[in-house]
Structures are given as structure tokens and as C-alpha cells.
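Researcher: Before we compare anything, I want clean individual predictions. No alignment, no superposition, just each chain on its own. First chain goes here; please echo the sequence and then give the C-alpha cells.
Model: Echoing the first chain and its structure:
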Amino acid sequence: MQTCLGYWLATALFFFLTYALLSGNLQNSKKLEKLRQDVEEMAHMVLSKFAGKGDPTLLMEMIERSVKKHLPKIWDDLNALKKSLKAGECPSLASGKSVFKIEEPVNYASEELGAKIIAVQAQPVCPPNFLKTLLGMEFTKNPPARMLESKMEPGNCFAFQNDTAVVTIKLPHLVLIDHIGLQHISQKQSPTGDTSNAPKDFTVFAIVEDRDVLLGKFHYGCIQSNLLQTFVVQSAEKYDLLRFHFNSNHGHPHYTCVYRIVVYGKM
């Protein structure tokens, strides 16, 4: 019994420390505050009721319920914190005050979090030779994986001939999706000032076993004052496999560039 109590108390301590790390650095901490209260209650039960005798089943069930309830939110907050730290925005733990603000939700279509491109149907801008085709290296110059990066620099995109392509993405986790979006560079960033190669109309499906679920048909406007555009998705269940159909661009006659895909939601 002491082993079980030690294990579950260690679990509770982990979540308490997670709270201590995040509460001073994230504005949205109501759920974390509730978690702190749960941990205090569980610790009290360990000291007063289960010290040396009794069945720890009730304690275990309480911890499991708390973990299942709060873990998805903590995961999102930790990912956002990790993203800010990688960007060089260091939180001040000593003062307990935040020196940064996390405005963008977690993007699950991020290579940093483990998202991957698993299938591509498109024609590369520069026709590959036989060897590159044989080795699956047609898109070496502008690979599809660049859509999963956050770096918005000219040329750092997935480029393909004309204006149609189909790309399948594997998210790192099952996600209850509420927004899907695209981002393109501005006219000022473009070396020629032309952004007509931005995607325009696109469709997204979730793949569930042997069926496709339409998540929406969207129109990216390439508006200079709103380059990251997101669209509401009414998702009834969680998905981790998405297929993007790019159907048109903003007028470029030869190729299309997709700079960044975003998928927001909750685990």
C-alpha cells in the first residue's frame, strides 16, 4: 500500500509543480488554480485518512479524475510555453510575473510538436530527374514539410506547379479541431512584390479509417492586413489525420506557394 501511495502522491506532486511553473507565466490559469486545489485536497487525504491504514482506492480514483480533466489544458499550456521559450522570450520565475504574452493558441500542425506530411499529390515546380523521382525527392527544393514550420521567409514554402495539390498531414495527437487556417508572406516580404502565388480556395477532410469527413471549404483572401487567416470548424469528434486539397491560387499562371498551415483545437 505504501508503494501505491508513493506513486500517486508523486503524480500529484508533478501536477503541483506544473502549476507552480505555469501560474506565474500564463494569464489563463483558472483550470490550473482548480488543479492546485485538487492537489491540496488529495495531499490532505493522504495525511489524514490514508497514513498507515485503509484502502487507497478512493484516493487513486480522485487523482485519475483530476488528471483526465486537467491534462489536455496543461499540455496546451506547456506547448505554448515551449514555443515562447524557443522564440527567446524567457519568463521570469523569480518575480512570478510574466515577461511575455502568449496570444496564439497551440498549432497542432507544427513540425516542432511532431506533425508530419505523409502523402503528397502535386507536380514540383522544377521537374525532377529520374533518380530524384525514384528516391521520392521531387520536392527537395520546396518540400511540403515547410508548411509545418513557423518561419515566414520568402521561399520557405511548399511550392508546386499550377494551382492544385493534395497533401495529407498527420497531427501529433487526436485533436478536437475548432479552427483551420493558412498564412502567406506579405507583398513587402516578396522580392517582386507579387503574392498572386498564394493559395485561394481549399478544402479539408479528416480521414477516419475508411471514410472522409468534410471539415470545410475555405477561401484564403491574401489580405495584407490579415495574412494569418483562420476559419471555424464544427468538429464533432477528434482527428489526427487531415487531407488538404488546394484548388486554386490568386492568379499566378505557373505555380502556387503554401507557406504555413495552422490547426487549432483541444486534445
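Researcher: Okay. Second chain, same rules.
Model: Second chain and its structure:
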Amino acid sequence: MVDVVVIGLGPVGATLANLLGQAGISVVVLEREPAVYPLPRAVHFDAECMRVFDAIGVASALAEHCRVSPGMKFVNADGKLLVDWQRPEGIGPQGWNSSYRFHQPDLERILRERLATHACVDVRLRSEVFALDEQADHVQVRYEDLSCGALREVQARYVIGADGARSLVRRMIGSEMVDLGLHERWLVFDALLKRDWNVLGEHSVQFCDPARPATYVRGVGNRRRWEIMLRPGEDAARFAQTENVWSMLKKWITPDDAELERAVVYTFHAVIAQRWRQGRLMLAGDAAHQTPPFLGQGMCAGIRDAGNLAWKLSAILQYGASDALLDTYQQERYPHVSEFISLAVELGRIIQAVDQEAAAQRDEMFANGPRHLQSLSPRLGPSALLLHDAGGGLISHQPTLDDGRRMDAAAGSDFLLLTREGAFSEAQCEGARAAFPQPLRWIEDGSEPTREWLAALDADAVLVRPDRYIAGVARGGDALLGLTSSVGAALGATEVSVAA
């Protein structure tokens, strides 16, 4: 029996398997396809995702294949700016850039190469799961080896369905999807430039034209993407024919400038699963939620799922935490991802206004100037693992410490107690650590970034979880002990383990 079976080896499944494998947890990954899908799909991730990739150990390799994005502009049919979403191009408070463009096959290749370094992770390609039989202490996973037609099985303590929008695991759980109100067909057209071309600049652009809403994405290297909305009744196959695509793009680009890599019609959905867990079965990524692409947060949401699940599974499997810890997964992630989907739907209504009167009313809303959009950074939903204070549930900053290390490197895969220099005695901190049932690193730091961050939180100490979210903050010795005791009790562990 293995600890975890992950179904699906896309970016979410590969990230989760890497996080678990790095912790020494035995994992079998079952993937239907024989190799990485070679064409582009997701094209954006953010600083929080890069922190997860850094925790896996692939951030440096991945960064070589990325481009920092300056943001996105929304313009109407007359070229008037409606929404301006500027992304800072410098290193942000999380220690990484706020927005990256990438080529998904590059990411998947790098994640799989990293997986191959974990002896406890077994990747089985050409493996199609067809049955899940949940028992009292394990799940029997049955699958077909498509390379030879043999029927095989594996037992696991937990099964994670990172198996996409048509998830088998979601069907086995019996979880319906909540409709958040957006379903539209769009043509996604990827092109490779053949010569210098910079007609539309470095920003991505949303063309909010009622005659034909469209999106332009400046990808990495010579990659460029357009997304073009279909009208009701338009034939998708005919619409995606090469000559039709070029005719719609001729005011910007022609076949002399670029070659077509692919043209495919997708239906953009805004849905979220009602239930993400049943016993030993859980969902992650598109199996749990799907969002329109207008915020570039589809894959990002799945990477956050992986980060949230990985440390909780590790707490159960390695440190004896209560199985009930997994109930906090949906409690925390559902409200968080819902905020992103809701904003994507709101922006979709701006972009997809195809009625002339509705478009005119929309434009009137921005008559006094564009809306300046800020990147979302919502709190996790309430759970016993989060204190209701100034920081609980927010993604943490990542200061560079006095000793030159970045905070995430100093924390590793453990909880971190970061305290203001001289705020607590050693006895107070050791008492707080002793009350904690898992490895808890304590760092006293006087660097300017740490001092500024703690001042903003009005705190002497911040407790950061392995997924880099703030569990809570404390001011004074009694509050410090209360913080670690409260979160420690929620972990429900049977043993006490303190990191050196």
C-alpha cells in the first residue's frame, strides 16, 4: 500500500506529487496520456505559484523559460481604456515577480524531471483509472495499463483527483458543480512569430468590442495568443479553419508575420464543485473548480490546492495529525477560489458585452476614466487552523533575513515562527515551540523587511504555515503561547515533534 495515489499528471498533479515526494511520502501517479501534451494551454502564473515551485526546487530552472508580464489593458471598440491592470515588474513582497508568462510544456517537463529524483514517487503513464473502491483504511484503485490492456490495481490511504474538468474522482464522490454564471465559446489561436512584430506591445489586451470580443496575450519568446469569442449559432469547426482565423486577425497580424500553431474552440466555464472531499477521496485543480481565463488564474488555483493539501497530508501521514484536518481543505480553499472566479466572471461581462446598448452602458461606466485593477490577495476561508486576527489566512510576505536567506528557504517545509528581534525571551519561544505538535522553526530577525512587515501586522511574531499562509500573529509572550497552542491543538496530533 502507498500513502497517496494522484490521478492526473498535469501541472497540478505533478506539483502535488513533487511536494509529497519531497516530504518522503510514498506516491503513485496514474496518468492516461503517454507524454506531455506538446501544445500551449495555460500561459500565466503568479508569485504565489512561483513560491510553490521554489519549494519543489524548480523555480530557477523554470524562471529561465518565463517572461515577467507588465499587465493587461481592457479597451473598447474605439480604443478607449476601460480597465488598466498594471503588474509591478520588480520583485514584490512575496520575493518573486507578481506575474509570469510561460509555455505549459516547459513547466510540465521541468516538474516531471524533478519527480524522477524522488525515489518514493512512482509515475505510471498510459494508466487509465476506471474504478475506486473505498475501504475503512484504504482505497482500492483499479486502472487499465493502456500499453498492453492489462487490468491492474493499487491500494492507497488517500486518492487525489487532479484529473481535470471531466474528473472521474468527482463523479465517484458524487459532487455536483455550482454554476457561477458564465459559459461562452471562444476560439483559442496560438501563433509563432516568423519575424519581428510588436504591433500590440508588451501588455496583454482585452478588446471589449461588441462586434467581436477578443483577447491578445504576449507569450514567451516568439509565442503569441489570440482568443476570439464565438456568437451563438456559429459553427465551431468552420470558425477554427485557418483562413477564417487569419481573416479576423488581419488588422493586427498576417500569415507573413507568423505561423499557426493551433486553433481550437473552448467553452469557458465558471463552476465550482459542491464537495471536494469524501472520506479518502479528494479533488484538486479543474476537477474542483473551473474559471474563465480573464484573470489568468485557472492553473494558479490548482497550484494553491496542491500547496494546501500537501502539508496537511504530510501532517497526517508523518506527524499523526487527525484525519479531520482534511476537512479544512475545502473550508479554506472554496471561498478563496470563489473570489477569483467571481472577479473573472465580472470582467467577462465587461469583455463579452455584445449587445450594442449594453456595451454603450458599459462604456458610460468608465466615462470618467479607467478602472485601475489590483491583483487579488484574498484570505483563506475560516478554519480552526487560522486565527481571526490581522494576518490569519493571508499569504505571507517573504522577507530577506539578516543572514541573507530568504524566509521560505529558512522555513523549508515546516511551520515557521518569525519574531521581531528582542521581542521574546528564549524561554518564551521554547515554551511556544514545545506546545506545538509538529516541527516548528523559530527565527528571530531584525532585518528591515521583517520589521516593516511585522509593524504592518501590529505584531511581534507571525506563524507561517508550510503553504506560506499566515496561521496567526502574536503580540507579547502570552499571545505567543496562545497562538502556537491554538494552532497546535487544531492539528490534533498524537505526538509532539520539535524542529532543531
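Researcher: What stands out in the second chain?
Model: The longest strand covers residues 177-193. Additionally, The chain has 14 helices and 24 strands.
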